[in-house]
Amino acid sequence: MGLLYLGTPLSWDQAKPHADAIREHGITQFLNIWHRLKDRQGDELLWGDEVEYMVVSFDHDAGAARLSLRQTDILAKLAQLVNDICIESSAKLTDMPTFHPEYGRFMLESTPGSPYTGSLPDLLSVEKSMRYRRTLARSHLKPNEVPITLPVFPRLGVPGVFTDPYYDPANAKASHSLFLPDEITNPHVRFPTITANTRERRGSKVAMNLPLFFDTNTPRPFIDPTIPWDRNIYKEDPEAKNGAALPDHIYMDAMGFGMGCSCLQITFQACNIAEARRVYDALVPIGPIMLALTAASPAWRGYLSDVDCRWNVIAGSVDDRTEEERGIKPLSENKYVIPKSRYDSVDSYISTDWINRPEYNDNPLPIDEKTYQRLRDNGLDDLLAKHIAHLFIRDPLIVFSETLDWNDETSSDHFEVYALLQGIQSTNWQTLRFKPPPAGSPIGWRVEFRSMEISLTDFENAAFSIFIVLLSRAILSFGLNFYVPMSKVDANMQRAQKRNAAREGTFFFRKSVFPVGSERRYTTTAPVTPPDLPNGCGPSINKENKLRNCYPEVPPPADPEKLRVPIEEEYEEMTIDEIINGKGNDFPGLLGLVHAYLNSLDVDFPIKRKLRKYLALIEQRADGTLMTAATWQREFIRSHPDYKFDSVVSESINYDLLKAADEIERGLRPAPGFLPSHYTGTEEDTGEPGP
Ligand code: ADP
Ligand code: MG
Ligand code: MG
Ligand code: MG
Ligand code: MG
Ligand code: MG
C-alpha cells in the first residue's frame, strides 16, 4: 500500500493526455535515484512480511458468514490502539506493527513495526510478530468479527447478502459489476477511480472465467443461473450474454474479485544493486512453485472451481489492456500488442551475471522505446533498461491533479506513483518486484517476492516466510543457478493453479543448480567458508551467527561456452515433492539447499530445532503428508452434509467452513492431514519441537 494522496483524481479521459508527461517525469525521478544510488554498497539484510486478512462477520443465529465492511473504523481504532500502547509502555511507534488499508473494504494488511534483521533469533520472532498483529486486530473487532487469512471469501459476489451491511450491486457506479456493489471497495478515491479507469481504458468490464469443478450432480453444460443475464442498468450489462461469460465456467467481472484476494509477500534488502538483481532472477522460477505449495483458493462466487489459486483471477481483475493491446483487433490507436495483464508473472530476467544466458529471456517484451533510449543514454545496461522500459508501456491509471505539480529532485513519487498507477499497492504487480531505494530514505535496493497465497495460520505464514528468506541466503551463499527460459516459468504459473497441482502437477525445473567451474561449492557437511568480500561490504556474518548479505558474484569459468549444454537439456519436469525435497543424488531440492545453508552457519541447537519445525511443514506439504489449504477446503465442502455434489458452496457450507477455519487457527479444532499434529494455535507450542 503506497501513499494515499488526498487529491482530485482524474477520470480516464482527463488522465490520458498526461500519460506521456508522467512517464517522462517518472523516468527523471528514477534516474535521479539511479545516479545517486547505483553504486551504493554494503546494506545489511533487513526483511519483512506483509500479511493480508479478510474480516468475516458471523451471524450465528442465521448461520451465515459475511464480509465486514468496517475497514475504516477498524483501521482508525487500530491506529489509536498502537498509539496508546506506545504511550503506556514507552515502546517506540516505529517498533509497533502497522496496519494498512487494502483494496477490499473487508480487508486489512499488517506489517511488522520494523524489519527483521539477519540475526537468527529474528527468524523465530516472525511467528510471534504475526500472532501479535492478529491478536491486536482480533481484540479490537466486534465479538462476532474475525480476521481470517484465506485468500478468497467463497461467496463473494453471490446473489443476496454476502456483506455486512448489505449493498445492492445495482449501485456499482465504478465497476458496473453484475455481482459486487462499489461498497466492497476501499472508500478512498484512489480505489473507485482505478476501478472505473481500468474499465474505461479497457473499453469493457474485466472478464475472468475460472473452469468449474464438475461434481457428480453438476449440470452439463453449466449455464450459471446466478448471473443476472438480462440486467439492464449499465451499458456493459449485456457483455455477459454476448460472450464474456463462458459456459462451464465461473464468470467474474470486477476488480474486487481479484484485488479482494489476500496474499503473503516478503521484501528483503540486498547489499547492492547487483545482488538484488541476482536474487530477483533466482526467485523468478521459484514464484510458481511457491504458488502451488501455498494454494488456498478453491471456491469462487459460491462455486467450487477447478483451480486452487488466486493468480489468474487477480491478473484478469486489473487487465486494462484494450482489444488492440490484447491482439483481438489490429493496432491503430494503441502502440503495442501486450501479452500480459499489468498484474502477472515477471517478463524478463535482469541480472548481468554470466549465468543469465540471453536465451532465457524468450518472452516477447514490448518496451517504450523512448524510455529505453533515455535510460541507455544515462548509463543503464540493456537488461535493466528493458525491464523498466517494459513497465513503462503501461499508462498511468490514476492521476491526481495536485500531483501534476512535481519536483523531480526531492521526490520519487512519480516513479513510485507510476508503479503505483499500475497497482494500488505501490507495486508493479508482478511475481517479483525490484524495488529501488525511495528518494531521501536510508533504505537500499530491495526485492519483493509476491506469488504466495496467504495461509490460514501464522505458523504456516511464518514457515513460508522463513523458508523464502533462507532460500535467498542459500542462493547467494552457494551461488545457485535456477535459470530456465521465461516461457517455462509462465507455463509453470498456469500449471501451479490447477487443482491439486502440489500433489499431481509437474513443473519445468533446472536439473543442475550448482555453479559450474567455480571454487564455491555446495556441501552438506563442512561449513562454507565465505569468500572475500568486495570493498564496502561488511565482515562475514557467518561467524557472527547471522544471515548476511554481500556475497560476491560467482566468477565465470575460463571458457563458459564449453561448459554450456543446449538450453532444453538444462531442465526437466519435476513434481513439487522433487523440487522441494530433492531428486536422485544430484539435486538436493530447495529444502536440501536450505538445510545445507543452515549447516554452514554456526546455529545454536535450540534455534535449529525450532527452525526444523517450520521447515518440516514445507517438506510435508510438498511430499503430500499434509494437504494444501485448497485441498482442505475442497474436502470440507465436499463432505459437508448440505453439499449436493453440484459444485455449489451454499450459505450453510460457507458458514461452517469459515467457522472451522477460525477454530482451526485458534487451535480449538484439530485439522489432521492439513496441519501438523503439534499445532495448538499458540506460538509457544508451534515454536517448540514435538515428540
Ligand atoms: P509494499 O510497498 O509492498 O506494500 P509495505 O510497506 O507494505 O510494502 O511492506 C514492506 C515490507 O518491507 C515490510 O514488511 C517492512 O517491514 C519491510 N521493510 C521495511 N524496510 C525494509 C528494508 N530496508 N529492507 C527490507 N525490508 C524492509
Ligand atoms: Mg497488500
Ligand atoms: Mg503493503
Ligand atoms: Mg508500501
Ligand atoms: Mg507488497
Ligand atoms: Mg520425502
Overview of the molecule:
It is an enzyme of class 6 (ligase). The protein is of the alpha+beta class and 691 residues long. It has one domain: Creatine Kinase, Chain A, domain 2. It has 23 helices and 16 strands. A hairpin with a 6-residue loop joins strand 3 and strand 4. Helix 14 crosses helix 19. The longest helix has 21 residues. The two termini are 42 Å apart. Bound molecules: adenosine-5'-diphosphate (ADP) and magnesium ion (5 copies).
Note the main attributes of this structure:
691 residues; 23 helices; 36% helix; binds adenosine-5'-diphosphate; binds magnesium ion; ten-stranded mixed β-sheet; alpha+beta; two-stranded antiparallel sheet; Creatine Kinase, Chain A, domain 2; disordered C terminus; 16 strands
